[in-house]
Design a protein that fits this description.
Blueprint lengths: L8 H35 L3 H24 L8 H60 L8 H34 L4 H33 L6 H13 L12 H23 L5
Helix pairs in contact: 1-2, 1-3, 2-3, 3-4, 3-5, 4-5
Keywords: Coiled coil
Length: 276
């Protein structure tokens, strides 16, 4: 540390020279350090290296401020050297501000990057869930081969619609986070497409559910086509026309004549002694 002026002949001269040399060394060392930190900052540094640059800058700045605060009045230190000291202090203060700002920006960038990755993963997960719900909705009608299966498919679609309602809030929240991050490119496009896909899957589930419920209400009842076929069959089939076997009047007269003649012959045979 520089020493203040004191009396004492040659001893005073020796101290003055020593202080002057210390002062010059500090100025030169601090100047080189300033250039080194600036160069390292321009080239870019890792997080740990950046922290070292901040520590180095703060150490030099504290030392220079201590020297300036001591107000050493040395005859060997010119006004130009004192001005150099003040200039170094100003430059180190400016450099320190830049380093701290860069650190803050790096932290924010890192946080934004982490959040972007998190949102991207969430969007992919939601996209996968929507894909599963879409496939289930598409197969709901084709697999309803029995009334029990039909009822099960209806219940599954109702649960899917409830799940989609809950999912809507998550989709909107993810889109809002994308906007807050001012993210662009593929991430913003993915968020937009995800909401459109949600609308499509929701509409599909509603449509399929309506069809299944209508099928449920008409299960076991003849369809219109079946009724038409039954009516056509009834019209085409006619019972056979009964044959009228009632004899006509002439036929009845002939028959009566035959019956009368037969009865007369029978009576004659009965009462004819020759035939006995």
């Amino acid at each position: 540390m520089l020493r203040s002026q004191s009396g004492g002949g040659s001893h005073q001269s020796s101290d003055t020279n020593s202080d002057f040399e210390d002062f010059q060394n500090i100025l030169e060392t601090s100047g080189r350090t300033l250039l080194f930190v600036r160069h390292s900052m321009e080239e870019g540094a890792t997080a740990s290296k950046h922290a070292e640059l901040i520590a180095t800058t703060q150490t030099n700045l504290c030392l220079l401020k201590e020297i300036a605060a001591a107000r050493c009045e040395l005859e060997s230190v010119s006004k130009e050297d004192v001005q150099k000291l003040q200039d170094l202090i100003s430059e180190f203060e400016e450099l320190q501000s830049k380093l701290l700002a860069a650190k803050s920006n790096n932290n924010n960038t890192k946080e934004d990057t982490n959040e972007t990755q998190e949102i991207s993963g969430a969007l992919e997960a939601l996209k996968g869930q929507l894909g599963n719900l879409e496939e289930n909705a598409k197969s709901a009608i084709g697999t309803a081969h029995s009334l029990d299966q039909l009822n099960a498919n209806i219940k599954e679609l109702q649960c899917a619609l409830s799940q989609l309602q809950d999912m809507k809030a998550t989709v909107l929240q993810a889109s809002a986070r994308v906007l807050r991050l001012a993210a662009g490119g593929s991430l913003r496009e993915s968020a937009t497409q995800l909401y459109q896909r949600w609308e499509e899957v929701y509409e599909l589930n509603c449509t399929q559910l309506t069809i299944l419920q209508e099928l449920q209400s008409s299960w076991g009842k003849p369809t219109e086509e079946e009724l038409e076929e039954s009516l056509e069959t009834t019209v085409e089939w006619q019972p056979p026309t009964p044959v009228d076997i009632t004899p006509t009047k002439a036929e009845m007269c002939v028959e009566m004549q035959h019956l009368s003649l037969g009865a007369l012959v029978q009576a004659c045979e009965t009462h004819n002694p020759l035939l006995e």
